[in-house]
Amino acid sequence: MTFVRSFCYLILISAIFYCIPVASQNSWDKPKGIIFGTSLTYRWDDMEGPSFKIVYQDLTWNLNAAVYIQKKWRVGLSSLQVFEKNNTDDWENFFMAGPMIQYDIWPASKSPIVLETGVYYGNFAPVTGDLLKRDHTYFFNLGFSGEISLGKQWYLDIGGNFYPVLGQIKGKENFILYNIGINYFLGRR
């Protein structure tokens, strides 16, 4: 249910940003439209030694949407669903979601490079070797990505995000993800 709610909020806010007229919209030649993105990340940890045994794994699915507010700046929302399994438990589902700001280093390029930041809310805490269910956890987001043009409106998105946990949690670790995904630009660049 949290995934459906997060996705609905993402679409609603994106539509609002898309429909709001910008006062000085004609004063710069900015891209116009919504960028929808999705990516997957798979991570694992295995036991050291001669046998290969996975003791931890997670799969993260990211959905995001952003709009240009100036020539190089985008704002949007991102929602991550994290499916985690360690060697003693069944698969568990966690989430993190929040607003993001992106800076497009080369907006005129067919393959832009983007820096991003934001503050996310989640229901888990990354600790050594595991994810613990914990409501009211906040994460800071620092990320980068390269968007490689696959066609007029499709892009291969390759990058990484660093999510340091905000607040005091015993044994906390930062959440670090690489991402490989697809972006679709609904509009014009």
Instruction: Give me the strand/helix succession.
Output: HEEEEEEEEE
Query: How many strands in all?
Result: 9
CA gyration radius, whole angstroms:
18 Å
- State the helical fraction: under 10%
**Oligomer type:** single chain
> Helices and strands: which structural class?
mainly beta
Distance between the termini: 35 Å
- Summarize the biggest pleated sheet: 8 strands, antiparallel, barrel
Q: How many separate helices?
A: 1
Q: Based on Cα principal axes, name the global outline.
A: elongated
- Rounded mean pLDDT is 81
**How much of the polypeptide forms β-strand, as a percent range?**
over 45%
Strand order of the largest sheet: 1-2-3-4-5-6-7-9
Low-confidence stretches: 19-27
Describe this protein's structure.
- Strands 1-2-3-4-5-6-7-9 form an 8-stranded antiparallel β-barrel.
- It is mainly beta.
- It contains 1 helix and 9 strands, in the order H-E-E-E-E-E-E-E-E-E.
- The chain has one helix at 2-19; strands spanning 32-46, 54-68, 73-86, 92-104, 113-127, 130-149, 154-163, 165-166, 175-188.
- The radius of gyration is 18 Å and the shape is elongated.
